[in-house]
Amino acid sequence: MGDLKRRLLFVLGALVVFRIGSFIPVPGIDPEQLAELFRSQRGLVIEPGIAFRLTTMVTLTTGTMFLMWLGEQITERGIGNGISLI
Fold first, then answer.
1. First and final C-alpha spacing in the chain
2. Which of 4, 30, 63, 86 has the fewest CB atoms within 10 Å distance of its CB?
């Protein structure tokens, strides 16, 4: 397989992984409450204690680190600037 074709397929696959990952919710958020929030624009956290805050911080930080890594992989193996594509 040609180098250009391999690079394009890698970029396409990485973007598909990114789009799938964008549908993963933050742990601890009730999907029904989230849907209600979009309908009425009011509260959504099941239990806003320290465990929720820590879990949210870890989840969002990990997700951000994954996106940075994915962008770097696209830059190295794909075509163009990966972070800009994401």
1. 25
2. 4
